[in-house]
Amino acid sequence: MARIPYRKSKLTQVMIEKRLEWARKCKNFPVENWKRVCFLDESVFEIITDKSKSVRRRPGEEYHPDMYCSDG
Questions:
Q1: pLDDT value at position 41?
Q2: Short-list 50, 56, 61, 42, CA closest to 3
Q3: Which alpha helices (H) appear in the chain, and where do they start and end?
Q4: What is the pLDDT at residue 57?
Q5: What is the number of alpha carbons within 13 Å of residue 70 lying toward its C-beta?
Q6: pLDDT tens per residue across span 51-62
Q7: Residue 58, CB half-sphere, CA atoms under 13 Å: how many?
Q8: pTM above 0.70, yes or no
């Protein structure tokens, strides 16, 4: 049976580790330092998307690595 694949996170293990390292380093920043921090949210938007991608899988295989669809 054809099913729409689950999307895989775009964060790599290296990216996750770097974010965690930064968070631990900044954990004890004084409030005055945080007042000077500006967070930016960069997002990618698709005007036209292709929703016709599908995979064939058996029940219980939803999270098998071969059943993911990569956006990259």
A1: 76
A2: 56
A3: 13-26, 31-34
A4: 74
A5: 6
A6: 666 667 777 777
A7: 0
A8: no
